[in-house]
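Methods — Computational structure assignment.
A single polypeptide chain was analysed. Its primary sequence is given first, followed by the predicted tertiary structure written as structure tokens.
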Amino acid sequence: MKKIFYLTFLISVFIFLNECTGYKPIFGSTSLQFEITNYGIQGDKILGNKLYAKLSSLSKSKKNSPNTKSLDLLINVLKTKSSTSKDSSGKILEYMINLNIKIEITDFITGEKLLKQDFNSSLNYKIQDQYSDTVKLENQTIENLLNKTLQEILINLSKNITP
């Protein structure tokens, strides 16, 4: 009796787990079909190139699709770093990184502006005992801000590009 119960339970769990395999997010980047034809980077070139590389890698996966839109891309990145807290002797304990990214995306063929938006995001990080650890933490903070902005760009772009 126990074997039948366990077997029935395992089969029902397997069926429920199998039902979840078709999940797709509403604003997923997999449904975006675009190709970056021309691009320009202003401001912080290193961060602009990192953001462009992420967008470019997403566009190359859908390059051979028949519904692919050709896009012009203009990225303007401004990074500011400021101290947010100091101890009593004036030594900095925490920094804030602020990224202001202006994106302008136009359709290459029609010239229609698909997206023109400013993305402003910031994060704080604390000074570490070792300078190299502080630099790693700063780079990780910047990478997190870029990824957050990339997700926002993809969400806003998916609203404007119809498959």
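Note: The chain has a mean pLDDT of 83.
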